[in-house]
Structures are given as structure tokens and as C-alpha cells.
Amino acid sequence: MGVLAVAVTLGGAIWAYGPAADSADSTRDQTDVVQAEASRLPNLKVMRTLAYLKDDLSGTYAYGAEEPKKESGLRGPHIDITFENRANGPALITKASLKFKEMGYVDTCGAVGGDLGISVNYDFPLPDQLPDVPYVMEKDISFQVGTNELDRLTLTVGPKTVSGRPWYGVADVILEHDDGKKQVVGPVALIDTGSDEHFYPDFKQDRWVIEVNDSTCLQGTSKLVNRLLETPKVIPAKELKSLRETLKGLGY
Q: Which residues contact 80 (CB under 8 A, 6 or more apart)?
């Protein structure tokens, strides 16, 4: 049996009813749905990224056979990302990854003792035996930014056990959204404090205390710091920049 299509003339205009009209209406409906969905999808923009050391971390201290003791106020590297959601709908980040391009320890150019026995509770704790690069660490998270809102995501990373020499690392931050899309921030260049009493950051003065006289070694340390800061499009930790300024002030 055939399908009936009817055309009616009203006031000089032809109005069509039947499969062709239904198909056109369906296509328009689908287009409207797609456009509405596209307008609802979040448009999450990175407004600012900072890297710095902050003393808000917890951990444990263990000495010999003693029972480990809880510690607070420990200082470590932070990556601080501010987002703005410009769309009609919340934006949800479900996974954060750090892809390290480089990492190691800064030579403090003097005799350094062993590890302090302090373990820090980082979001991304690196093994004490630093891995080869490239090296990727992943963490499932649930970070939501509401419609037309600003919000900050902070990630912490570093070797789990505090070492005598400051650790450094250069990494991209990869953020995965609930729709599967990925967003890359960085690279970010980080540094921690270490525990060398002759080579450490003075946070009040925004400089480093360097009480060693090995000029050849300090030249090498200065070369490393300069190279890290010259990484293309790098977002450097505040303390990495102050280390360069301190070394320059000493003639390196």
C-alpha cells in the first residue's frame, strides 16, 4: 500500500503533509537538540597557573625503631590552577595526570646527610628511587566548576621521603573531563626544599641561603636552574626563580 502525501493551497501558499515534511521537521528537531547540547557543554578555561612551596601538608616522622609520629605543617611543591567555566552547565574534571619530562636532585655542593625519616602525604607521591623519564602518574579526582564560576584546583607532588638535596621536576598537567576530553597545562617546573642546612629557601626574604664555597659545583647548579627556567612555555615555581636570583647575586 502506498504512502499518502497531501498538498493543500491556502491563500496562495502550498502546505505539504506527509513523509517529506515529517523528515524535515525531524531533522530540525535533531539540529535543535545538538545545538542545545553544545551550548550546555562546559567551556572550562585556565585563567592562571602558579607553582610554589607551601607548609600545609601532613605526613609522618619515623626514627629508628620508634613508632612513626604524625607530622603537620610540612612544606612541599604545589601546582595551583584557577579555572573559569563560561558555559551554561557545570564542568567536571574526573582525572589528573602528571607527565614528567625531567626530574632529579639539585646539587647543594656540600656534604649532605641521609634522609630525615619524614614522609609527606602528597597527592602524587614519587618513589624515593626516582623513576626514569618520561614518567606518568595518574589520580582519579572529582573537581567541579559551576556555571559562570571561578574555582581553584591544587595538586601536590614530590618524593615521598624528604631528601637532603632539593628535588626538582618538569611536568605537564593533563586534566580529563567527564566527556573524555583532555586539557593540558604546563609544563610546570617544580622544586622542593630539601633538608641541607647550608642550602635552603628563606621564605621570609624570598631568597635562598647558600653557605658553600665550591664555585665549580655552584656553576653547575646555576646552569641546571637556568636550563629549567628556559624550558619553552614553562610555568616556574616561585622558589625556582628565587634560587636563580640568589645564585646570580653570588656571581653564578
A: 49, 50, 51, 52, 152, 153, 154
